[in-house]
């Protein structure tokens, strides 16, 4: 059994990556002699983050909220589809096919249509997040359900366990590991989808802040918002692992495997 790395290792790695990106960023500016009005230095960007922290943090919180809402909807939808496929295997091909079609839709092209149908509010962002993430979560949850120990399956057959009880006591607990793995992949994808939806719809969030900064030629604010969006994506990636660590700290045992 592979022991998961402590949470602080992921934090240190994330900080190291950001530091490396900052060094490369500054090096390119020096090497190419790029003017500050085109690409601000990391120091200027950090200063903008500090000066406008309340604005940027508030917009990031809105983006996180909308992305989280979309992930909740995606998780519930993926769970329902996985349970249906596990119960009636004849549904595997059609459900998987439709889910794959949804996943392959170009979100850049679909987002404007979603905005026309759902408006320029939270609903449009949630729909965009669902389109991007539901297939990944569905596959991860389904694989976890199929990894049930044969003894559990044999026991349910022996006692002629009903659909509801089997779902509650076998499939749902088995799906937890798949949900965590799916969220690790889907979390950053959800942030990207939410930002793109905000960018196109103008709904409050870090995406619309980037649009406004670009329109007003506030280059430093644009780069500061971009850095903040990258940090939010890292948070979304690390959050499922942090929740697993917290569960273990309180005595809950959770096995999370890639397959």
Automatic annotation (TrEMBL):
Family: Belongs to the binding-protein-dependent transport system permease family.
Originating organism: Gordonia alkanivorans NBRC 16433
Keyword Methyltransferase set for record: no
Keywords in alphabetical order: Cell membrane, Membrane, Transmembrane, Transmembrane helix, Transport
Location(s), subcellular: Cell membrane
Tagged with keyword Repressor: no
Biological processes, Gene Ontology terms: transmembrane transport
Signal peptide: none
Pfam families: BPD_transp_1 (PF00528)
Domain ABC transmembrane type-1 as annotated: residue spans: 60-244
Name under which the protein is recorded: Putative ABC transporter permease protein
Record InterPro entries: MetI-like (IPR000515), MetI-like_sf (IPR035906)
GO cellular component: plasma membrane
Membrane-topology annotation of the record: Multi-pass membrane protein
Record-annotated membrane-spanning stretches: 7-31, 67-85, 97-116, 122-142, 168-201, 221-247
